């Protein structure tokens, strides 16, 4: 009995199985690499979400009304008033905005507050004491 044809048939099947195994191993390695990239991306998104959430309270809220003129300090000043429990003075606003408490900064802030009073956004209760309109 000649088993040579049977051995040759087994060789063909072994080669095919080996080729399939190598192809599947290559695909698995590629999928592992893609999975690692996706997991890293997901981690970065989670870190970004955590950072943005932590910084959200530092971003001034846009409380400006649509008719409010363009001015970089108006939204920041109004955000300070939104957190205040009572009237504020120009010095308090400078302090809250981390401006140096120099006379020129306090007077500039007082002038800005008076413009907001003229725009009917703030009120000046006592001389130099400002509050939001109720």
Topology of this structure?
Elements lengths: L3 H52 L18 H10 L6 H7 L6 H16 L3 E5 L2 E4 L2
Antiparallel strand pairs: 1-2
Written overview of the protein:
With 134 residues, the chain is mostly helical. Helices cover 63% and strands 7% of the residues. It is built from four helices and two strands, in the order ααααββ. It has helices at 4-55, 74-83, 90-96, 103-118; strands at 122-126, 129-132. The protein has a two-stranded antiparallel sheet with strand order 1-2. Strand 1 and strand 2 (129-132) form a beta hairpin. The chain is rod-shaped.
Report helical residue fraction.
55-70%
Number of helices: 4
Q: Can you count the beta strands? A: 2
Strand content: 5-15%
> How can the largest sheet be summarized?
2 strands, antiparallel
What spatial form do the alpha-carbon principal axes imply?
rod-shaped
| SSE sequence, one letter per element | HHHHEE
Return the structural class: mainly alpha
- Average of per-residue pLDDT values: 88
* Model regions low in confidence, pLDDT < 50 over at least 5 residues: none
Gap from first CA to last CA = 107 Å
- Across the major sheet, the strand order is 1-2
Radius of gyration: 35 Å
Q: What's the quick description here?
A:
With 134 residues, the protein is mostly helical. The protein has helices at residues 4-55, 74-83, 90-96, 103-118; strands at 122-126, 129-132.
Structural key phrases:
mainly alpha; 63% helix; 134 residues; two-stranded antiparallel ribbon
């Amino acid at each position: 009995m000649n088993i040579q044809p049977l051995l040759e048939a087994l060789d063909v099947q072994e080669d095919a199985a080996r080729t399939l195994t190598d192809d599947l191993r290559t695909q698995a390695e590629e999928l592992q690499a893609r999975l690692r990239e996706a997991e890293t991306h997901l981690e970065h998104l989670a870190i970004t979400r955590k950072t943005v959430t932590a910084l959200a309270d530092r971003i001034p809220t846009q409380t400006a009304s649509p008719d409010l003129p363009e001015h970089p300090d108006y939204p920041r000043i109004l955000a300070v008033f939104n957190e205040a429990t009572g009237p504020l003075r120009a010095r308090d606003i400078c302090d809250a905005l981390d401006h140096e408490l120099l006379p020129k900064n306090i007077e500039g802030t007082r002038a800005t507050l008076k413009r907001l009073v003229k725009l009917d956004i703030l009120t000046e209760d006592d001389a130099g004491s400002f509050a939001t309109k109720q």
